[in-house]
Amino acid sequence: MRYKKDYRWYNVKWFRRMAPVYDYVEFLLGDLRKKVTDKTNDSNPKIIDVACGTGNQSIAFAKKGFSVVGIDLSPDMLKYANKKKKPFYKLKFIRKDATRIPYKNSSFDVSSISFGLHDMPEEIAIKILKEMMRITKKNGEIIIVDYYTPRRGFVSLLVHKIVKIWETKNYDHFRKMGLSHYLKRVNLKQFSKESYLIGNVQIVVCENIK
User: Fold this and answer.
1) Are 111 and 50 contacting, i.e. CB atoms less than 8 angstroms apart?
2) Strand pairing of 136-147 and 201-207?
3) Pick the CATH number of 2-207 from 3.40.50.150, 1.10.1740.10, 3.60.20.10, 1.10.1660.10
4) Could you read off the pLDDT tens digit of each residue along the chain, which spans 210 residues?
5) Where do the structural domains in the chain lie, given as residue ranges?
6) What distance in Å separates the CA atoms of residue 30 and residue 71, rounded to the nearest whole number?
């Protein structure tokens, strides 16, 4: 199908161009990374960070002593992620397609995905959410960070125009449908939500009730 070809094209070619500059916006997200790690209730969780990119959220988890696997399809993004990995982190990065995650059912206490779903065709995003549900233990946490459209029209329009400068064509569809649409399709219910960056980013935590 065409959406599958587009998905692979973006993960190989588009992210090859983005990888060298991806971390320049990280200074805006440092506090957010910490907020995400603080959402984990387990004292020693085993975590998978899906579509991990250059590894910033994976590393934030690893800095707290958690056991972490970061998975991404882009070799160029993972190259930068591995450069930042310290020998004492309980962390590894693997290059795999997150629509077919190579782990058994209920392998992780927590799964997370940050700024990934909006980059994907909807059908790919749904497959990935289902995989995250499969590999996360019953009653485990699924943490999703992505864009949110605030009610204030001017702020929403301004941020939208700025973000569109670097985002893929799938961003418009995600913004229009909203994360709640994706969660409803996989029957995943959120139990907490926090806004960030003037309401333009959301941290949503779901309980994996199987």
Assistant:
1) yes
2) antiparallel
3) 3.40.50.150
4) 555 566 665 666 666 666 556 666 666 677 899 999 999 877 789 999 999 999 999 999 999 999 999 999 989 889 999 999 999 999 999 999 999 999 999 999 999 999 999 988 999 999 999 999 999 999 999 999 998 876 666 666 666 666 655 666 788 889 889 999 999 999 999 989 998 877 788 999 999 987
5) 2-207
6) 20
